[in-house]
Amino acid sequence: MSAIDDVSIGGEVIRLGQFLKFAGLIDSGGDAKEAIIDGFVKVNGEVDRRRGRQLHDGDLVSFEARTVRVRP
C-alpha cells in the first residue's frame, strides 16, 4: 500500500471533482468528470460516481496509485 498524503483544503468542505484537481490527482475538470463517471475514483474505499460529492475532514480519495486524505 502506498503512503497517504494529507491535502489541506482551507475550509470545511470541498466537492470531489474540485478536490481531484486541487490535490493534483487530475489535470482538468473534464478529466475529473470522466474519471468519476467511469468509476476510477474511490472515496473511503468505495467507488463514488458523484462529482458533486462533498468531502469532509478525514475522507480518503484514491485515484490510480495515489491516496490522499482531506484536511481542513
From TrEMBL:
The keyword GTP-binding does not apply. This is RNA-binding S4 domain-containing protein. PROSITE patterns: S4. Residues 14-72 form the RNA-binding S4 domain. The keyword Isomerase does not apply. It comes from Microbacterium galbinum. Keywords: RNA-binding. Pfam families: S4_2.
